[in-house]
C-alpha cells in the first residue's frame, strides 16, 4: 500500500464550495481534485490502483480517505469535486470514508518506524534516490503541503515527531505531479528487482 496525505488547512469542512469556482470558493480544493486524478487515474501505469490510498485532512478536523473508485472513477476535476462535496455533506460513495481527526492523529497513526514511515514531501529534503533502499523495508506514506507549503503548526509537528523529509528536486512542483512521481518511482524500483 502506498499512501498520500494531503493537508488542506484552509478548506471548509462543510463542503460549501461552488463547482465553477473551485480555487476561490473552495480555498484551493482544486489541489485535492488534481491529486485524486493523479493517484487513481493518470498516475499509475503498473502499480495496482487497489494498493493506493489518498487521505485529505481538511481544516485539521475532518479526514477523507479515498480508495480506488473502480468503475465509478470521475472523469474530470468537477467530477472529483462533486465526490468531495457529497462526502463532506455526509453522502460519500462506498470508496470514501469520512471521519473526525487532526494532522497529529494521522501522524501518530502512520509514523511508526521502522514498520511504517511517514515521509514529508519537501523540496529541501533528502533526494528520493538517497532513500530508495529504505522504501522497500517499510510501509510508506507521503505528506504534502498545500499551495503555501506547510503552516507553522504542521512544522512544529514535523519537528516533534522527527518526520523525515524527502525531495523530488529543488523545483517546487504541483502536488499532483509529486503524487505521480512517487508512484512512478515505486513502479520503476519494482521493475528493477
Ligand atoms: C505547490 S507545492 C507548495 C509550494 C510552496 N511554494 C512551498 O514553499 O512549499 C505543494 C507541496 O508539494 C510538495 N512538493 C512540491 N515540490 C516538491 C519537490 N520538489 N520535492 C518534494 N515535494 C515537493 C510539498 O509537499 C509542497 O508543500
List the helices and strands and how they pair.
Blueprint: E1 2-8, H1 22-25, H2 30-42, E2 52-58, E3 62-66, H3 77-88, E4 96-100, H4 103-110, E5 116-127, H5 132-135, E6 139-144, H6 152-160, E7 165-167, H7 175-192
Parallel strand pairs: 1-2, 1-6, 5-6, 5-7
Antiparallel strand pairs: 2-3, 3-4
Bound molecules: S-adenosylmethionine.
Describe the structure.
With 193 residues, the chain is of the alpha/beta class. The chain has helices at residues 22-25, 30-42, 77-88, 103-110, 132-135, 152-160, 175-192, and strands at 2-8, 52-58, 62-66, 96-100, 116-127, 139-144, 165-167. It has one domain (2-192): SPOUT methyltransferase, trefoil knot domain (Alpha/beta knot). It contains 7 helices and 7 strands; from the N terminus they run E-H-H-E-E-H-E-H-E-H-E-H-E-H. Strands 4-3-2-1-6-5-7 form a 7-stranded mixed sheet, sandwiched between helices. A hairpin with a 3-residue loop joins strand 2 and strand 3. Bound molecules: S-adenosylmethionine. S-adenosylmethionine binds next to strand 5 and helix 7.
Kindly summarize this structure in a few lines.
It contains 7 helices and 7 strands, in the order βααββαβαβαβαβα.
Q: Enumerate the strands of the largest sheet in spatial order, edge to edge or round the barrel.
A: 4-3-2-1-6-5-7
* Broad structural category: alpha/beta
Mean pLDDT: 95
Shape: globular
Low-confidence stretches: none
Largest β sheet strand count, sense and barrel closure: 7 strands, mixed
- Second CATH tier, the architecture: 3-Layer(aba) Sandwich
Small molecules (ligands, ions, cofactors) in the structure: S-adenosylmethionine
**How many angstroms does the end-to-end distance come to?**
18 Å
Order of helices and strands: EHHEEHEHEHEHEH
CATH superfamily: SPOUT methyltransferase, trefoil knot domain
- Say what the CATH topology is: Alpha/beta knot
Question: How many DSSP E strands?
Answer: 7
Oligomer: single chain
Question: Beta fraction of the residues?
Answer: 15-25%
Instruction: Name the CATH class.
Output: Alpha Beta
